[in-house]
């Protein structure tokens, strides 16, 4: 049966829906539930992603038009009914003019672009950049974006993000984390910045990982299925095998532990809780766990632990919790 999105009326409906999401996400306060609904809508069909990315590109491209011309495009004749989504009308007008003048390639114009995105506890966010690249932000994440003529720069200030980068050999895509950087021209990889190290895992393509102040010829090259980490001194570890799908399971709201130590489990779970989770001692911390839990219900994990391992969970006076021997 043919998908109605493939016909003209269906494409128009998707475009209008993308416009509604675009306008909604411009508001200063968008809660986690709304972001989850948006992510679910994007995942329904590739055309949803395409239309939303096009709209973001058009909105950025509006800066390429003279102010008076843009103002004229915004004006609606009295005889017509005014659309409720003015911003989309402007973007659609920009597209019409760009097509008419043969300037559609202006969407790929390497104009300067800056923005900052962040997520709160338990929140995830899907961000489409003007070049077509995508950033998926995990809980408690903050990124600064700055695109320039010859460089697409990202600073991961804290947290974890998945980058799906559009190929562009003219402008490398560089993710900086304080103790090092990851450089690509087009690929798919995950970067996590913790207090003491940065972890990099590659799902697709090739990336170049360098410590801070490292010369251009000093780097570790990673391909799909490989990872590394950069310590606090900017030293990059040799490449090692990773499971990118397990490491990025957070994108679907899951925590996957495969023979992980309880110390590692506690550190990961703490990212999704108001108060940290700790282990009582090294003996407890060295116990191993293999299981899958929901990132938005870490209480279920704590309730299940005593039935899986010889441990108990106690609540401390400051409200944090600790895993101890039973």
What is the CATH topology classification name of the largest domain? Jelly Rolls
The percent range for helix content is: 25-40%
Indicate the radius of gyration in whole angstroms. Answer: 23 Å
State the secondary-structure class. Answer: alpha+beta
**Major sheet summary line:** 13 strands, mixed
Overall 3D form: globular
What's a quick, concise take on this entry?
The protein has 326 residues and is α+β, with helices and mostly antiparallel strands.
Write up this protein.
With 326 residues, the chain is of the alpha+beta class. It has 9 helices and 18 strands. Strands 1, 2, 3, 4, 5, 6, 7, 8, 9, 10, 11, 12 and 13 form a 13-stranded mixed sheet that branches. A hairpin with an 8-residue loop joins strand 10 and strand 11. Helix 1 crosses helix 3, helix 2 crosses helix 3 and helix 3 (46-61) packs across helix 5. The N and C termini lie far apart (58 Å).
Features:
alpha+beta; Phage tail protein beta-alpha-beta fold; 30% helix; 3 domains; Jelly Rolls; three-stranded mixed sheet; 326 residues; 13-stranded mixed sheet
């Amino acid at each position: 049966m043919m998908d109605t999105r493939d016909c003209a009326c269906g494409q128009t409906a998707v475009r209008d829906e993308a416009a509604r999401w675009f306008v909604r996400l411009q508001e200063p306060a968008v809660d986690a539930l709304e972001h989850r609904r948006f992510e679910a809508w994007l995942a329904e069909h590739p055309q949803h992603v395409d239309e939303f990315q096009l709209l973001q590109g058009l909105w950025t491209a509006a800066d390429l038009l003279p102010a008076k011309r843009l103002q004229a495009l915004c004006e609606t004749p009295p005889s017509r009914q005014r659309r409720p989504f003015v911003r989309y009308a402007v973007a659609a007008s920009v597209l019409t003019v760009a097509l008419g003048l043969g300037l559609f390639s202006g969407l790929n114009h390497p104009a300067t672009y800056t923005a900052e995105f962040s997520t709160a506890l338990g929140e995830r966010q899907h961000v489409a950049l003007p070049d077509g690249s995508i950033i998926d932000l995990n809980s408690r994440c903050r990124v600064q974006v700055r695109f320039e003529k010859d460089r697409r720069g990202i600073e991961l200030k804290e947290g974890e993000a998945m980058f799906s980068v559009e190929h562009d050999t003219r402008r490398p895509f560089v993710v900086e984390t304080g103790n090092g950087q990851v450089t690509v021209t087009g690929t798919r990889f995950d970067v996590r910045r913790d207090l003491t190290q940065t972890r990099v895992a590659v799902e697709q393509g090739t990336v170049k990982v360098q410590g801070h102040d490292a010369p251009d010829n000093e780097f570790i090259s990673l391909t799909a299925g490989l990872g590394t980490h950069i310590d606090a001194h900017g030293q990059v570890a040799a490449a090692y095998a990773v499971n990118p799908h397990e490491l990025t399971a957070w994108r679907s709201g899951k925590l996957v532990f495969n023979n992980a130590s309880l110390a590692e489990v506690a550190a990961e779970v703490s990212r999704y809780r108001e108060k940290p989770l700790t282990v009582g001692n090294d003996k407890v911390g060295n116990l191993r766990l293999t299981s899958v839990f929901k990132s938005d219900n870490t209480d279920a994990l704590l309730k299940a632990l005593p039935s899986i391992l010889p441990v108990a969970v106690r609540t401390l006076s400051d409200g944090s919790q600790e895993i101890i021997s039973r």
